[in-house]
Amino acid sequence: MRTEAVTWISHRGLCQHADENTRASFEAAVQAGFHYLETDLRASRDGHIVLSHDEVLHPDTTAQINVSNSSREALSQVKLNKGSPLLFFDEFFAQFHQQGHVLDIKPETAMQVIALLPRYKINLDKTIFLLWSDAHQKALLEVFPGANCFARENECRRAGFSILFAMPFLGGLKAGKIYSIIPSIAGRSLFREKIVNRYHRYGAGVLAYLPNTPEQAQMAIDANVQYILSNDDFNLIPR
């Protein structure tokens, strides 16, 4: 029986009617009731943090744009495919500071982004970071000691296979760390209480990664995951 509410994380905002990682997508996510907003951070050429999953953009109306080689002024002129401008972290932080944040710091400009983040009064109790290398994670923890970082992709894969084959002692699981699990592997659902409990026995947390349907989201809830990262609100299920 579930005793704690799951934390819903919006994956780059709700994008059914808005470009991802934009003011419109995040406003839609907040309106839908998401607790946390997940976004991708890159640095511009002139030292601004811009929210963009991709390093190379292909807007409909202009030639391709490399985010890290462009100035804030140039990036401010970009219109994405559904008409929204790019959003910068100072704008995002000013408007959405009351929500929790998941900050995916992309590797190409990770050190620049890490150096810029101390400008903001980041609430570490409501922020989870994702880094893509051990060196970048160490650099972040030097700036923000005690910051909560998701297990990286290779760590999640190792843990997942060890759990799936009932050998969690081989998974390198660490207490207090949050591991992502996908809906299924080779037709076998991972959103099961038996699976999630194996993480919990090691003191680890579990995030259900992008359930595709309301049924999968409900399975994740029933399995006692702590977090759901989702492209859809599924009306934030329990009814």
Automatic annotation (TrEMBL):
One Pfam family named in its UniProt record: GDPD
Stretches assigned to the GP-PDE domain: 6-239
PROSITE patterns named in the record: GP_PDE
Gene3D superfamilies cross-referenced by the UniProt entry: Phosphatidylinositol (PI) phosphodiesterase
InterPro entries with a match to the protein in the record: GP_PDE_dom, PLC-like_Pdiesterase_TIM-brl
GO molecular function, one term: phosphoric diester hydrolase activity
Record-level GO BP terms: lipid metabolic process
PANTHER family named among the record's database cross-references: GLYCEROPHOSPHODIESTER PHOSPHODIESTERASE, GLYCEROPHOSPHORYL DIESTER PHOSPHODIESTERASE
Protein name (database record): Glycerophosphodiester phosphodiesterase
Organism: Thalassomonas actiniarum
